[in-house]
Design brief:
The protein has about 450 residues and is of the alpha+beta class. It has 15 helices and 18 strands. The longest helix has 19 residues. Bound molecules: zinc ion. Zinc ion (ZN) binds next to loops.
Amino acid sequence: MSLDAVLAKIDAGLPQATERLLDLLRIPSISTDPAYKADCERAADWLVKDLESLGFEASKRPTPGHPMVVAHFDAPESAGPHLLFYGHYDVQPVDPLSLWSRDPFDPQIEDTPAGKVIRGRGASDDKGQLMTFLEACRAWKAEHGTLPCRLTIFLEGEEESGSPSLIPFMKENADELRADVALICDTGLFESKTPAIVTMLRGLLGEELTIHAASKDLHSGMYGGVAMNPIRVLTGIIAGLHDDTGRVTVPGFYDGVPELSDEMRAQWQGLAFDHARFLGDVGLSVPAGEADRTPLEMIWSRPTCEVNGIWGGYTGDGFKTVLPAEAHAKISFRLVGTQDPFAIREAFRAYVKGSLPADCSVEFKRHGNSPAGQMSIEHPAFEASRAALTDEWGVAAAYVGCGGSIPIAGYFKTYLDMDAMLIGFGKDDDQIHSPNEKYDMESFHKGIRSWARMLDRLTR
Ligand SMILES: [Zn+2]
């Protein structure tokens, strides 16, 4: 069977694949520091050359910042879908250098009690991960003389420095970049052991408010009792944002919040998520979200309202019996499904205004807003990937959510109208962004095999 032959090529070629990764890791492509500009160019050139050797038509594309690498392979008799693969070749800075056990740009294979690891900056985030896909293509090409389907490779060099060129580049090159599905390889295994496909990403909305009462700070001996205290008003408003069951009370807040499908709920129940340990690690014990939801639902599929900061009056040393003229808070909402950030901003502001007593006024300041990413998993690439991951890792792969925001997935949806699958093989202890970053050799090897299995399933 031809898949077996491809997998055998991957196994036999692992030493050479590792050497290629080490070579790429030696290039200090730190995107945030202008001193490394030439190195970012060098990393892009390295990738263009490697992609050309795989039969891609590859080019380095200038941006106002670091270049993008874009490569195309047009399968003549394409059996499968057109896939776009995204990764990034830039890395985080390395300081403090003294905490590294070795030169971060002189990567090495190390034996550790947990197995062999590739140690060096970028090993896991994201050079090791992006090379898993290129190596799978290489083995496929070696076995079949061609690649299995139409492929576009899109590699960014500014991911670790805020991606300033990404959206303009996507907009300008939308026709060229659009494919059936995007594969994003920049995430990890669930709890370091279960292969996972992220299909839900929470969005974010930020609001800052200032409640004004008296025209100036007052003395609480003189005015206390008769003058309204804006901190009392603010805390009353904040206290009213949740009901006794943990639900957010802003009218219309749950519009667009989808109910989890039975199948997804069953998958999540099957995940070995130890919420006692998750909370215990930070000194807590009781989940604080909606009473009828599991902890994983609270993190992945339910929206939130959190107070991130609150201040007013006198907070310095000693004591001052002030009755302040104003009080402030910063409040954020994590959003899911098709919740509309603009509608929620308006509803929140209306709730606050409706809660103000006489003589008080409110001033709002808007912070960022991004909608949630909810991937439609109907494209066959989703199930094919899940089956491929399950075959390779011997553990049922799951569709999972992500409590934080990974904007890139949303950009593919917004600017290119594509659903994205986030699949990665990183582990929680990979120390990405920290000293001594590593990538497990097992992740690298099985990651390559996983992509080969997925390509096989999609083009059978
Ligand atoms: Zn990354």
